[in-house]
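Work Package 3 (structural annotation) set out to generate three-dimensional models for the target panel prioritized at the project kickoff. During this period the team completed the workflow that converts sequence records into discrete structure tokens, so that structures can be stored uniformly alongside our sequence database. As a representative example, we reproduce one entry of 90 residues exactly as it appears in the project archive.
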Amino acid sequence: MGTVTITFHRPLHPYSWGMFQARPRLDHDERLIPIPGMAPDLRSLDNQCPFLPRCFKATTVCRTNPKPAFTEHEPDHRVMCYNTITVPAD
């Protein structure tokens, strides 16, 4: 959760990062990197991260603990994830 600018330039959640990798770009002639599997059914969420089955950074912590609480990484930029993406600041 964050402003549009922060979220686009420094996505913290692996699923957000994956979504940005899967989008087509006019300034690059590269293959898209799709996220495997199906999107989570938002009508039937349990206490685990809804992105767990599709997350490339999922670990035992993700599978055995309830989903994490929001953590603020910088002003107006929060994420619910045990294994966030590290993106250098602009």
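The mean pLDDT is 83.
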